[in-house]
Known about the structure:
This protein starts with 5 loop residues before the first strand and ends with a helix. It has helices spanning 16-24, 37-44, 63-76, 80-88, 101-122, 141-147, 160-171, 212-230, 234-237, 245-250, 252-262, 269-276, 286-300, 305-317; strands at 6-9, 29-31, 78-79, 129-133, 152-157, 178-180, 196-197, 240-244. The mean pLDDT is 88. The chain is α/β, with parallel strands linked by helices. Strands 3-2-4-1-5-8 form a six-stranded mixed β-sheet. It has 14 helices and eight strands.
Amino acid sequence: MSMQPVIILGAPRSGTSLLQTIIREHEGFRSVAKESGFVWHKYCHPSLRDWRCEGCPASAIDQRAIEEIRHQFDRYALSSRSWRRASGLNVLRYQRSPLMAPVLKGGYFLLARLLRVLRAVMSGSSQGRLVDKSVHSGLFLNLLDAVFPDALYIHIVRNGDDTVSSMIDGWLNPDRFFTYDLPGGLQIPDYPYREWNFALPPGWEEYRKRPLADVVAFQWTRLQSSIMEHFDAPVLRERLLRVKLEDLTNNPTGTLRRIAAHVDLPWSDYFERLGQKMPTVNARPSDRKKRMSRKVAERMDRMAGEEARKVQAVNRALGYD
């Protein structure tokens, strides 16, 4: 089996967590917690760019930075066995609880440190092949290339209208997805909170007073365009596999075969079992889904024609007719 890192790319609410779960629970892999922003933010936080966007200029990428980032992954990545145990105990369900999430986060960092000490005593090095996922990393792919020059990438996508709708639902959740309290604040007329959610692409300032559907459509199109433009270079294209969440749902075995081949994994009973029953990740409670559907639909109806056309253009580029 290759030891190349596997990097999962994609917009929020498009299956990145599902794909991360599938790969990191395969024997021989390791991963940090669900989102690796705590590793990348030292170099990519928007406050370092005068709040223009998330990113990392080439001038900030030196060998010291590369080694420090790799060290953070070595320090906090847990093995596939640890993640399978967490899934078996359904521990991660508590990450949605405002009361339990800080406890779970603190426990994760403590466990990672303890296991690192044990690894050092037993073998002197971290074990396993790294898989990483962050819905922010599509905005700083130059840094990923520098840190992991041999990485294999999987870009998981979902129909744009469905993803934007689900991201709007995320923006309206008061407990989960806030990321930045931006200078000057937000005056989004149909959004009741102060904080930005998810990734912060360049050009966000023009949307601080726009309807929420316009903000999210802009966010989704910029993330997807950034990923597609980066991998348009022939030297990088062969290292990228693009899969649709709909294919993973409707034809799991065939799609898993493509994924396994791309990341150099033999077909096995593990994938056969997944083909019969996929894990449930980030499923919304049915009562919340019903309660939010009308609010989300109302906001989708307010999307400007220009933003809707941008979503459809990117949708076509991703293979959605």
